[in-house]
């Protein structure tokens, strides 16, 4: 997958998913985004763009975002933009009393 990305100072242009990458990965990303519920981050992005520019463009925009999340997840071993899990609280076990004999 090769998402188009052009920057100039503070302006960022994110383009379409180019066809230089794997066809199978492109297909899988688009299929995955179509099944994402509307209340998730990707679903909201898909629906917001679809309302302005059309359903197919919204799906491809969300698929592009998904490939970015996958890239950073594979590179950094965590996805930076998702909230982290809360720290596990230590388990406090009550003291065991010795039975009086």
3D structure, described in words:
It is a single chain. This protein has 101 residues and is an alpha+beta fold. 47% of the residues lie in helices and 15% in strands. It has three helices and two strands. Strands 1-2 form a two-stranded antiparallel sheet. The longest helix is centred in the middle third of the chain and has 22 residues, at 55-76. The protein is elongated, with a radius of gyration of 22 Å. The model has no long low-confidence stretch (mean pLDDT 80).
Give helix and strand order, one letter per element, not per position. EEHHH
Strand order of the largest sheet: 1-2
Measured on Cα atoms, how large is the radius of gyration? 22 Å
What gap, in angstroms, lies between the N and C termini? 72 Å
Q: Count of DSSP helices?
A: 3
Strand content: 5-15%
Sheet of most strands: 2 strands, antiparallel
* Number of DSSP E strands: 2
- Average pLDDT confidence is 80
Poorly predicted parts: none
Shape: elongated
Query: Helix coverage percent of residues?
Result: 40-55%
The secondary-structure class comes to alpha+beta
Which features characterize this protein?
single chain; 101 residues; 3 helices
